[in-house]
Each structure stands twice: as C-alpha cells, then as structure tokens.
Design brief:
Helices cover 33% and strands 18% of the residues. The protein has 260 residues and is α/β, with parallel strands linked by helices. It has an 8-stranded mixed β-sheet with strand order 1-4-3-2-5-6-8-7, sandwiched between helices. The chain is globular, with a radius of gyration of 17 Å. It binds S-adenosylmethionine. S-adenosylmethionine binds next to strand 3 and helix 6. Catalyzes the formation of N(7)-methylguanine at position 46 (m7G46) in tRNA. S-adenosyl-L-methionine binds at residues 87, 112, 144, 167.
Amino acid sequence: MPRTPAIRDNGRVNEADQDTTDTLEPSPSRGNRLYPRVTSFRSRRGALTEPQQETWDRRWAHLGRDVGDELLDIDGWFGRHAPTVLEIGSGTGTAAVAMAQAEPHVNLIAVEVYRPGLAQTLQRIERTLDTDAPVTNLRILRGDAVDVLEHMIAPESLTGVRVFFPDPWPKARHHKRRLLQARTFALIANRLKPGGVLHVATDHAEYAEAIEVTGNAEPLLTPLNWSSPISHERPVTKFEDKAHQVGSTIAELIWGKIGA
Ligand SMILES: C[S@@+](CC[C@H](N)C(=O)[O-])C[C@H]1O[C@@H](n2cnc3c(N)ncnc32)[C@H](O)[C@@H]1O
C-alpha cells in the first residue's frame, strides 16, 4: 500500500487545535485516528429526500464507496483501463457529470463528504442512463479526499486532479482548514503521473493568491506549458453562478506534473 509518511504526519494536529465550533460526527473517513486531522470541511448532517434515498439504494453499491484504507482497484471498479481523473469536493455533481459526459474516454472519480450531494450526483448519473450520452465512466467516493489520496490512490496513477471552488475558510484563524496547502499539493503531485494536470478554480481572490503561491512552490508542479491530457471546460456550478452575481473574478489555476 502506498504511504507518504511525511505528508501523513503533517496532516495531523492535536485535538486541542480542533475548531470546537464544528460538530464532529462519525465519518467513514475518520477511521480510528487517535488525533483527528483538522479537516477542510464542516460536518453537516443531511437527510436524504425519499427519491434521493431510492436512487441511493439502487445505485450506491455499484457506483459508490466509502473512503477506506485499501488501495483502490480502479481498473476493476470501472471495468477498463483508462486515464483517471479525481475531482475533490464534487458537491452535487454538476461538473462531475457534465465532464464525464464530455470525456467518455476518462475514468472520473468524484470525492465528496456531503451525502445529499453524493445522492444528487447519483440522481444526475441516473437521469443520463436513458439518454444518448449515458454516464458510465463516473464513480463516487464518500469521505475525506485527503484520505483518498493518502490511502486509496497509488503514486503516479492519476492523469488529472480537479478542485473546483474549494471552501475558502476566509478567516485567518481558519486558514489551517484550507484544503490547498503545501502538504496537499505535495500529495496531489505525488499521485499525478508525469505530465498529469491539477486544475483548480476559485472565486475567492485571497485564497486564489495563496493557492497560486503554494502551488508554484511545489517542486513537482509547474504552471502547465504543454498540451493538457484532460479538458479544462467546466460547466457553471451554483457556486460559480453566485460568484458571478456578486462580481467576483474566477481564478483558474492549472499545473502540470513535471517529468513527462
Ligand atoms: C464550495 S463547495 C464546491 C462544490 C463543487 N465543487 C461546486 O463547484 O459546485 C466545496 C465542497 O467541497 C467539499 N469538501 C471540502 N473538503 C473536502 C474534502 N477534504 N474531501 C471531500 N470533499 C470536501 C464540501 O463538502 C463541499 O461540498
């Protein structure tokens, strides 16, 4: 099983450092850690609607998995060998489903902690199944994407990683909760194949600056200067829509993994 000890340890903080304003509820990705990591998400309880639950019951066993400690057999799960892209924090699946449809030759794995969002993603997939462009190349993982990268993805196995509108955690005292910090860039860079791409979009100007500086400092990444192996076309999600409404600029940051 792949391990990146320095990264793993960097991710840990003492309980005392936890933000006590958040309720920590049991999560499939928290496992038996002695010291829970400061996570980039706020635990939200969310009941599924009846139709969502029905879709979940029909589709989860085939299309979804809880995050765990085992390396993913990606080819086995998709039933084929193809370039693999991981989307972190896929929300309700707007981008994941549209991009899976646009790139049928890619295996797309969407990771999200919010169960109603995952249920909506399953519903979106289900709605395509009777159309001319059924989505058969999207799988979903429920849990913390950092755990996914650490435990479930082998080094140099991803063609792309997408992070669209990561929670900005704007208060300085919450910056430690931001997903895109040096250790996450190092982890993502390690899991990308040489030539693979990290695509980030954010509407938060200050976070965008921090992301750019941190990404540029990661030695295995460089601003993309070759033809991308994955599409950069994104549909507009509700987060982007809101950002446009208040006049925010969307920053698109794209790096490639060196060594191709
Ligand atoms: C601001 S929303 C953006 C959702 C989606 N990308 C979009 O553009 O509509 C950020 C999402 O990331 C998820 N998230 C945050 N940290 C995460 C993590 N470590 N692992 C998985 N999902 C995470 C949150 O639950 C939330 O749904």
